[in-house]
Structures are given as structure tokens and as C-alpha cells.
Amino acid sequence: MISSWLFIILAVLATFAPSILATDYVVGDDKGWTINFDYQAWARGKMLFVGDNLVFNYPKGVHNVYKVNGTGFQECSAPLDSVPLTSGKDVINLATSGRKWYICGVSRHCLDAGQKLAITVFPSSFAPSPSPTSEKSDRKFSAPSPSPTWGYSN
């Protein structure tokens, strides 16, 4: 009887542990998703893992968020068939590892004002164990040297 309860408890913990350990990253911190902000500097030193969330905060109707590929990021262009996020509090769950790119598609915000973000998402198996004294939003580490088997591409 005790072993069946233990199994149930472990099964529940295994199901919910990734979401409990997930971190929400507010893109741009207090500045939010805006123009004339260095998002590459903001992302530098942050370790984002599968299961974490990006939160894009901005005044609704002023900006938007497109997920693009590396070429779209470099050229500040979204595919014609893609639909932007426009709520002003867009949450993107980082469900897979690898390189991710986001741009603002309003006017020339990306091209002229640098409103674009490139990140690398690491597999959740690389996530450090949380320490009792650390806050989830302060998770910053030096990136490990990528293994040749990761195969990330730009």
C-alpha cells in the first residue's frame, strides 16, 4: 500500500517538476519589448532552458512579436504567412532546444531601432539544480562549451 502511494507521488512530481523549475524571463526586464534597447546584451550570460518562458511586455498596438529564422532575424523580415503575437503580454514557452530568433514587425522597429532578440535554449537536462537561496529570475551562468553532438545551426 505504501509503495503504491510512493509511486503515485513520484509520478505526480515527475509530471509537474519541469513547470515548477521553469523560469519566466521578462525580455528587456523593466524596459520591456521596446525600441532602442540592446537585447543581445540583455540575453548575454543568461542560460535559458527547455521549459522556461519568454515574456514580451509592451503597450498593445505599439509593437508585436514574430518568431523568425536566422535569415529573418538578419534581414528583419517575417514570413508572409506568419501571424504576430500582439497581446502586449506575450508568453512564449521554450519547448525545444536550439537557436531562437524574435523580431518586432511594426514599421522599421527591428531594422532601424534594433528591436530583435536572438537566444540559445539549452536542453532541460543541462539545467542546474536550484539552490535554496537563489531566485528563479536571477539564473545566470557561463554557457558550457557546446558538445559536437548538439548540432545547433544558425
Automatic annotation (TrEMBL):
Residue span of region Disordered: 125-154
Chief location category: membrane
A GO cellular component entry from the record: plasma membrane
Signal sequence coordinates: 1-22
Alphabetical list of PROSITE patterns matching this protein: PHYTOCYANIN
Entry's Gene Ontology BP terms: response to symbiotic fungus
A Pfam family this chain is assigned to: Cu_bind_like
Localization, UniProt: Membrane
MF-aspect GO terms: electron transfer activity; metal ion binding
Domain Phytocyanin: 23-123
This protein's record includes keyword Membrane: yes
Lipid bilayer topology: Single-pass type I membrane protein
UniProt keyword annotations, A-Z: Copper, Disulfide bond, Electron transport, Glycoprotein, Membrane, Metal-binding, Signal, Transmembrane, Transmembrane helix, Transport
Name recorded for this polypeptide: Basic blue protein-like
Organism, scientific name: Pyrus ussuriensis x Pyrus communis
